[in-house]
Design goal:
single chain; mainly alpha; 59 residues
């Protein structure tokens, strides 16, 4: 029975990992893609604006 207790944690982790990958793949694209893209674009714009404003104050 020691072999069963040795195999359970890796099997559980493998099942969990496969589940996480399936969720990631299923949530790519679809109806939320435009909303996610807009959020990323907004974050990039904020970072770019902050970088430019700090460059203007340094000069």
């Amino acid at each position: 029975m020691d072999y069963v207790s040795a195999l359970v944690p890796p099997v559980v982790m493998a099942v969990f990992f496969i589940g996480v990958i399936r969720v990631i793949v299923k949530t790519q694209g679809g109806a939320n893609k435009a909303k996610e893209d807009a959020a990323v674009d907004a974050a990039l714009a904020r970072a770019e604006g902050a970088r430019r404003s700090s460059a203007n104050t340094d000069a």
